Amino acid sequence: MNMERNQSLWGDAWQRLKKNRIAMACLSLVVLFTVLAVYGEVLYRYHDIKDTTPAYQNTDLDMAFKAPSSKHWMGTDGLGRDVMARLVQGVSIAYKVGIITSLIAIPIGVFFGCIAGYFGGKVDDFVVWLYSTFASMPGLLFILAIAMVVGKGLLGIYLGIGLTTWVGICRLMRGEVIKHKGQTYVLAAQALGLSSGRIIFRHILPNVMHVIIVTFTLRFPAAVGTEVFLSFLGIGVQDQPSWGLMINSARMRLWQGIWWEMTFVTLAVFLLVLAFNLLGDALRDALDPRLND
Amino acid sequence: MTTADNILEVQNLSVHFGHGDETVKAVDDVSFVVGHGETLALVGESGSGKSISALSITKLTPRAARFEGGQVMFGGQNMLSLSDRELRGIRGSQISYIFQEPMVSFNPVYTIGWQIEEALKLHRKGIDRKVEISHLLDLVYLPDRLATAYPHQMSGGQLQRCMIAMALACSPELLVADEPTTALDVTVQREILNLLAELSKKVNLSVLMITHNFGIVSDLADHVCVMKKGKIVEEGQTRQVLDDPQHDYTKQLMAAVPRLHPAKGGGVSPMK
Amino acid sequence: MKQLLTVEKLNVIYGHGKDSVHAVKDVTFNIKSGEIFGLVGESGCGKSSLGKAIVRLTDPSSGKMVFNGDNVSLLKGKALKDYRQEVQMVFQDPYGSLNPRMKVGNAIVDVLEVHRIGKNKAERRERVSELFDSVGLNREWAWRYPHEFSGGQRQRICIARALALKPDLLVADEPVSALDVSVQAEILQLLGKLRTDRGLAFLFVSHDLAVVRNICDRVAVMYNGEIVEMGDVADVIDHPQHEYTRKLLSAVPSF
Fold first, then answer.
1. The CATH fold of domain B6-94+175-255
2. Most buried of A90, B22, B184, C201 (most Cβ within 10 A)?
3. Which residues form the ABC transmembrane type-1 domain (chain A) (predicted)?
């Protein structure tokens, strides 16, 4: 393969990713969802400031439980609200939960995992103690406790999920870094006078990136799932439609033949998770220069 | 058919990789024989096809390899026409292999004794395995107590001895040694080479030795085949090839070996 | 010739108390500038620990190392980083010594950046090209990944990387043991050339006296953490004094 001279690892990865059709399809899907999420967020803020009722909250009891039609493409729910509008609005919640909790958990886990694995000794003892402590607390209690402190709503969910789930990635990273620390290229970097930070984050990290990517793609659906659960318990989202709330209400009516709400919401979850997973896999492969000749 | 004197006859063997323009002739019309109780060395650089030739004998070659002709006669059969099942029966029991990296050739979670026993269970029924294990360890000059040791507790040289013990577990007729000492210190290499030389006499073992180092050849082999780019470029009695190499490539390979007493103007000279 | 490195009564001990391993015991020797000094012994004799102690990858437990007139056995921080410009190391395993996710040229640019050599990226890349020339590799190859190279080529890259800082001493820890004899000969020739061209001194660590004979000026034989014999390489090989040296000699295949 004749590659553009002197690109970075990420530059090369992008070149390879561009050639992967499935990855590009998934990327378009992720971009689409991202646009919807931004749109939903803007819409929510707009109505919040104007103090008006957004379309997704418009109730019309005469129109309750209507099957998909040209007016309501995905039908209506028990309060006559348009399922499609609520679904689109839900993207923003799912995104925020999936990404913000990852933005909290992954950096914490990666940082502690890396320093524990690289430095070993007392640092390692401390980190292992720290994550064992966190792991021994039931996650749900922790989330409930945080929700008590910061109040109901999304902030509690972000912090609750984010601060409890870094343990898994931390453990994985610690193991991977220990493995790489034993390799000669790390020793060579030390002999060349590189600082520990540079060795960890510039030399070892790209070699263990696949762990982070896979963790992220697996975390995303798990985080959405937790949000569903917490909203169900009543400590999650309050005044916006989330996919969790929608699935929860739709499952009660499913046996009455009201299939559309459940179908479209689960389809949306499925597409989002699939896109992230396939993209994650492709990215992991693209980041391995050995797989591409 | 193998003649009475030869245990292995490879005739016009060709093994290719890839298709069309990208075909690589890893082994190209190669013939050699290994006599009973004799040691043959295949010598060449990496990529010369020497390892693929050795692996071809029991079709241990990578999946992508294509056999393009020739035959491998062993025990009156053409190995290339046997089924996988028949080949499995021969590997380990009649033809054994030892490889370059003793450190990674053992499963780290089992003891040495357990792993030797595994080989015995597979191919030899109805013997006292405990006795046989200690006999095998004796044969390679290792104390019995090492049967309960794990691979990480042993040195590279000890592990290579264990490899040999395991390879001998089923009294094979042919031992294929693929660079058995490359990963070892010279002192340990010396011990392993001496051991192989002794065993080939003691149990009348035939050995096919793969190496890149002409220095090793002189000590062990009766015959030598020099391989370059998939072809045998020179062959003959070891002494005769060493004393009077005919092919330029052979001369270059020999000149590359560092010597204790280099000639005037000395040093090693790299290949062209 | 001027003394480059003097090592006096150096000890390296790993671990504490009962479990401690005394890897290097009271070792004393010196290397002159432009000299190739061989260190021979079998695995576990402490020769690699000694090599690493000299590059300060392990800390000596006691003893003194004087490099170019400065005591370097206790250097820390900035001073240690500066010392790394003068003493570099090449390792045995050419496959593991290069970061698989980094183009080999970028790995060298990285080193230059850390030590603030060269004004900008373009200048550093130019330097990489020169280094590739000096180890006999095609300049264009600098922007490839390690897996695209053979063992011998990788070892050349490692040498180029070590030369990036223009060291005076290169510790080569079994640099040719993992290579075919034919490739081994090429690398040995390259090391000899670097000595002639740049006046580079080497500590050449090996288990093979025959290799040492073909490249070194002087040699020290190490056994169980101690140096048991030292002298001109021809003298030691033709008139070995210590029994262990004789054992090493008899192990070398000859023909």
1. Rossmann fold (3.40.50)
2. A90
3. 91-280
